[in-house]
Amino acid sequence: MNYFLNFVFIFYIGATSGWILELIFRRIVHHKWVNPGFLIGPYLPIYGFGLVSLTVIYLMFNNLKIPSILVIILMGLVMTLIELIGGLTFVNKPVKLWDYSNRWGNYKGIICPLFTFIWTLIGAVYYYFIAGLIMDKLAWFNNNLSFSYILGLFTGVIVIDYVYSTKLIYKIRKYAHDNNVDVKLEELKTDINEYRKQRKEKYSFMFPFKQNIDLKEYFEKELKNKKFKFKNLTKKKENL
Fold first, then answer.
1. Where are the alpha helices (H) located in 100-209, listed in sequence order?
2. Integer Cα distance of 160 and 39 in angstroms
3. pTM of the prediction?
4. pLDDT digits over 10-44, tens only?
5. Are the beta carbons of 186 and 34 closer than 8 angstroms?
6. Which of 28-37, 50-59, 179-188, 216-225 has the lowest mean pLDDT?
7. Is the pLDDT of residue 226 over 60?
8. Where in the chain are the domains?
9. How far is it, in rounded angstroms, from Cα 26 to Cα 24?
10. Are 110 and 125 in contact (CB under 8 A)?
11. Rounded CA gap, 14 and 46, in Å?
């Protein structure tokens, strides 16, 4: 049971830390605050599973006489596998959380060599700089098992969040499929925010799809705009 609680604790650290990193990254790159991921709360499970995997690999091979470079490469490959599983499970067309379609050597837009390299670099950072900190946190947790009540609450919230968000994703996916369009979830969040500003409505950071405007109405508006732009583009080509 202690092993299970330890892994839940590491998952908690990874999921919340990953959410913060993604939030800051989007702010710097896109200059907008966007709630990352398909869940509502401040956590990204894929980072939780990633940190658990890195920690397991580190504990398995740390005391063995294996070159650190091989362990780090294994970490990069495992992180890529987690990204692949996450992509195939949660972001199948027509709804996507990320898209590497324009990257060289990509597989279904879900994984690519560039990000495998990035995951390997992250594995190196973990191996040399973060692993010791995680071991210290685990030692603290094992001396303060009362914190497991917080983990229980955290787990319950994620389960409820997952059920709610999955139902919402299903609705978005169904509408996108029926209208033969691809939807990038975070772009959709950003577009709704911009549309909200035009209508001078309040925008919920944690509940971006729960607005005064009906989601179906928003999709219909976007489809009309795309068809209009396509028609204009066709006319310009004919004039040429």
1. 113-125, 131-142, 148-178, 185-198
2. 10
3. 0.83
4. 999 999 999 999 999 888 877 878 888 889 999 99
5. yes
6. 216-225
7. no
8. 2-166
9. 5
10. no
11. 8
Residue 95: phi and psi, rounded to 5, are -110, 130
Residues 177, 91 contacting (CB under 8 angstroms)? no
Q: Identify whether the C-beta of residue 42 lies closer than 8 Å to the C-beta of residue 16.
A: yes
**Tokens at residue 194, please?**
């911009």
Torsion over CA: 171, 90, 131, 4 (sign): positive
Q: How far apart are CA 56 and CA 53, in angstroms?
A: 5
Task: For residue 95, give the 3-state DSSP assignment.
Answer: strand
Range name among 32-36, 47-51, 236-240 with the lowest pLDDT average:
236-240
Residue 92 · residue 52 · CB < 8 Å: no
Longest dimension (CA), the chain: 75
Three-point CA angle 95, 205, 51, nearest 5°:
65
